[in-house]
Amino acid sequence: MMMYLLDTNIWLERLLDQGRSREVEEFLSTVSSERLFITDFSLHSIGVILGRLGCMPAFCSFIKDLFIDGSVTVIALDAVQMRRLVQVMEMYRLDFDDAYQYTAAVEHGLALVSFDSDFERTPGGRMSPADAIMH
Hints:
Elements: E1 4-6, H1 8-15, H2 21-30, E2 36-39, H3 40-52, H4 56-68, E3 73-75, H5 79-92, H6 96-107, E4 111-113, H7 129-134
Parallel strand pairs: 1-2, 1-4, 2-3
Helix pairs in contact: 1-2, 5-6
């Protein structure tokens, strides 16, 4: 059974009700939360972004949905994996946040779900939420 690491932009798409929010909503309602992962980097970034937008009640709801009512797993990179992240940045011309997501997905054997086309430069690529539903 496939397990998924959701990039920051997937969560924000839904939280901010952006253009592809329905696609994300369908994915989240189709795939069990036990099969979903988020990096600590994404979690903190979402907190920063929602804080800047004055949407901390949405952040509290997000935490409740993912971790209290749901079973989403938070993952982080250790020191050795952070060194690999730097190599990934150089090899695939990714910025830090994309390299973090990609390295975390590879290290944990997860399929990366993202709207970011930069991941197409990597061997693992990425899936959109709609692609993931079809798997």
